[in-house]
Amino acid sequence: MKKIDTLIKILYNIYLLLKNHQDYWSLSHVPFPDDEQMTRQEVKDYLKISESTYKRKVKDGTLKPIKMPGGDRFYKRELLAAFQESYRKGRL
Known about the structure:
92 residues; Multidrug-efflux Transporter Regulator, Chain: A, Domain 2; 3-stranded antiparallel beta sheet; 3 strands; elongated; Helix-turn-helix domain-containing protein; DNA-bd_dom_put_sf; HTH_17
């Protein structure tokens, strides 16, 4: 009976973790086959922002990079809101 109780506790903890991170599991993070992946520098060039602005946007959550061993990566379709903001401010 002790093994079953331990297993139930583990499954419950996994459930709580998933429940608290629902926004991560939303469809916006699911890449589509034709979705272009961009590097950090490509994103800065695409949005016409500086390094300090990039860091600020990552820190405040406006940009949400995918952390990879070779550096941050982004899917182009996830940058739509940031692109629209850059356009609104007259950078593009």
